[in-house]
Amino acid sequence: MRTALTIAGSDSSGGAGIQADIKTMTANGVFALCAVTALTAQNTTGVTDIFDSTPHFLAEQLDAVFTDIFPDAVKIGMVSSAELIETIAAKLKEYGAKHIVVDPVMVATSGAKLLRDDAVTALCEKLLPLAEVLTPNIPEAEILSGMTIQNAADMERAAQTISEKYGCAVLCKGGHQINDADDLLWRDGAGKWFKGRRIDNPNTHGTGCTLSSAIASNLAKGYDLDTSVERAKAYISGALAAMLDLGHGSGPMNHMFALKGDFVE
Ligand SMILES: Nc1ncnc2c1ncn2[C@@H]1O[C@H](COP(=O)(O)OP(=O)(O)OP(=O)(O)O)[C@@H](O)[C@H]1O
Ligand SMILES: Cc1ncc(CO)c(N)n1
């Protein structure tokens, strides 16, 4: 069985972060490994508190994983401080990790800030150059490119700028602002649009975590990047289309939409 590692924060509401990643990897047929960067006290209406792992304890988790079950792909999500980012970058280099997907998580769907301002530089200098693909949404792409994005042409310019700056592919997500379900992949000097069917579902908590984990799962299984993005979009469309409705805010998706009924021996 292929394996994928998520390095991310825990979401107590189960819809984003490590929990979304593990469900996504499992649903996509790979064995999920995890290293927790932080605990968040969070639900569908917001984040009330964050408790960071120490850099030492994060390094211990990464050593434990890489020296035993070497992951076929790695997904990185919420990492709130420069010290934790530096720890991850050093360990990924030490072990020669492959197929690294970085979701540059900065702000939660609910508006909570998940990355400290002083950590943006560490993210850009240490982690982004290790990535095979980055998956920013529009506000994140604006910060990483230093440009304002108002339309599809701006998305293309920003993705190209980020890709050239950090030497990796960039999947800029149209998200909830421009072309809801249309994402742009910029790689090797050219852009390709992945058009999605817009699903009228207000419950989008954890969509970014889910998409990046689905891409990592497909890379782990040996698919090329274009195919991995295509398959990840099909997966997230299925999870959104299942129309789960939990909680008082923007709720989680049904990651297990393809499971049929209860397990019986
Ligand atoms: N209503 C929708 N219908 C279909 N696909 C959608 C919809 N909303 C988002 N998506 C898709 O979900 C994926 C994640 O994109 P999104 O822009 O929501 O990420 P994000 O803003 O990083 O997520 P998060 O809210 O978890 O931080 C993308 O592939 C996007 O096209
Ligand atoms: C732990 C965690 N990671 C990422 C996100 C982004 O959706 C979130 N809300 N919570």
Automatic annotation (TrEMBL):
Recorded catalytic activity of this chain's protein: 4-amino-2-methyl-5-(phosphooxymethyl)pyrimidine + ATP = 4-amino-2-methyl-5-(diphosphooxymethyl)pyrimidine + ADP; 4-amino-5-hydroxymethyl-2-methylpyrimidine + ATP = 4-amino-2-methyl-5-(phosphooxymethyl)pyrimidine + ADP + H(+)
Classification via InterPro entries:
HMP/HMP-P_kinase_dom, PM/HMP-P_kinase-1, Ribokinase-like
Q: In which pathway does it act?
A: Cofactor biosynthesis; thiamine diphosphate biosynthesis; 4-amino-2-methyl-5-diphosphomethylpyrimidine from 5-amino-1-(5-phospho-D-ribosyl)imidazole: step 2/3; Cofactor biosynthesis; thiamine diphosphate biosynthesis; 4-amino-2-methyl-5-diphosphomethylpyrimidine from 5-amino-1-(5-phospho-D-ribosyl)imidazole: step 3/3
What are its E.C. numbers? 2.7.1.49, 2.7.4.7
Q: Which Gene3D superfamilies match?
A: 3.40.1190.20
On whether Kinase is a keyword of this UniProt record, the answer is yes
Q: Which residues form the signal peptide?
A: none
Record's superkingdom? Bacteria
The protein's name: Hydroxymethylpyrimidine/phosphomethylpyrimidine kinase
The scientific name of the source species is Gemmiger formicilis
